[in-house]
Amino acid sequence: MRMMSRASRILGDDPETVREAKRPHLAEEEEGAALHSTSPRSPDELAGRTSHPEMVFALFSPSSRQITYSYFSVDSVYDVIESVTGESSDPASPPLYEPYIPDELADRATNLGIRAAFRHAKAKYKAEQSRQASLFTMAHHRYKAPSCLFSDPCLLPIREPAKDAVLLAANSVIILSSSLESQPLNMCSGLWIQRDDSRKTAVVLTSAHLIRAKDPSKMDPWLEEWTGKYHREAKVIVHLLDNTTVLGQLLYLQEHYEFSLYEVEVDKPVELPTFIDSVRSGQDVFRLGRDENLDLTITHGRVEYMVPDWYERCHYMYFSRDTSHSMFQDDGGLIIDLEGRVVGLVNNHINETFVPSSILHKCFDFWRRFKCIPRLHLGMTFTSIRLLDPICIERMRRKHSIEFGLIVEKVSKGSYAEKLGINKGDVIEGFNGKYISTTIELENMLIDICWDHFDQGNELNEEKHVSVKIFDATKLSRKTKNLTVIVSDHGEDIVKGTYPITGK
């Protein structure tokens, strides 16, 4: 019999060989750092940030291609320690048979010797039964609440590809815990987005809720989440999939998009996910996280575009699910499509919101080059006309020739937008000569404008002028004005306009 050498690795010792075998269709995108970029910069700039041979970034898949994943043999990823031979020195476990008293001895069952032997054999049988039941391969019999991909008959048409997608993305999902002065603060899921094999470090992306300050005076702790404060000094522990833990070092906190980046030391390469920028309303997706036992949490849902509540950010997308199923606390987890690609980061499991990958993509590009993720503070919040009832859209089109744009919902007191005369109900049809139809498009444009701002040698907390095309809903007229905005990487607070009544 042919023997296999000790400690041989089927696909070689290079971890990237295994990764490429898992994604053979992405080989051309993986050249350099394998980061497909949409930010406004030259190819030379991209190569300058990704040419380090030991630095590996998460992939962004081009949205115009259908990608099919194939699995490699499980033999290709573990080290073969023992030689394969025809015989083994370790004897096989005997089969488990249940003892009984034969019928011909039934009349002698009162015999004390037979009864004692039977009780002894029965006890050994039950003990072995319990041992077998405790094997990790038998754990599925003990599940009290199996995942939706095991028990939900409605998912039968997509069950098999969905299982493959979940298992493909699962190795990228971890869990983090935070504490403040030895008091537990929060737990969030997270995902790997970058690794440096030479330094033996990796970067994990998670929700900013991991270190968000709790306000005991609020009945609903999520109600004011977008104006919350954060404990940057909190101790963060990253729970790895091999049941070890490492200390996380805060690299960056983005308050507006509500995510944070932590660097950790790792002994072996971590598995990075593949992102995709495009996602459509009604698309089947799965939300992945981990619980305190490191078990996966899996929730099926569909992507939904909705008008945000007054306390929510305008760039959110929504995860629509069957509310009769369990809700998992999986902030910081992944939203994946049926091919295992990440379409968003879970923001709030209660309000079912997530940040789409198109925004995350630009944020990662910005952070890798400038070590910050700024945004233009406009002093306004919006509702996309596209999200309205078709009756309302048709009425605006018929009466006012408005088909797309952003309806102003709130204007911050004292902001440049207020000074410019923009009011609630006005329609912003374009920025810098480009038409805007959704708040996601707006966020991507704002990041691109910030990129140009930094490319020109400018910095944070400076003013910038943008051209805004406005439909005045009161005067029923269009105008184009220059709006002064602030370049900031803090969360934007919209201040409600109030005034005191001091007399008659």
TrEMBL record:
Organism domain of life: Eukaryota
PANTHER family cross-referenced by the UniProt entry: OS09G0436400 PROTEIN (PTHR47389), OS09G0436700 PROTEIN (PTHR47389:SF5)
TM helices/strands, residue ranges: none
Residues annotated as domain PDZ: 407-446
Biased composition, class Basic and acidic residues, residue ranges: 16-27
Region (Disordered): 1-48
Molecular-function GO term, any one: serine-type endopeptidase activity
Name of the protein described by the UniProt record: PDZ domain-containing protein
Pfam families found in the cross-reference section: PDZ_6 (PF17820), Trypsin_2 (PF13365)
Annotated organism of origin: Triticum urartu
Family per similarity comment: Belongs to the peptidase S1C family.
GO biological process: proteolysis
InterPro entries: PDZ_6, PDZ_sf, Peptidase_S1_PA, Peptidase_S1C
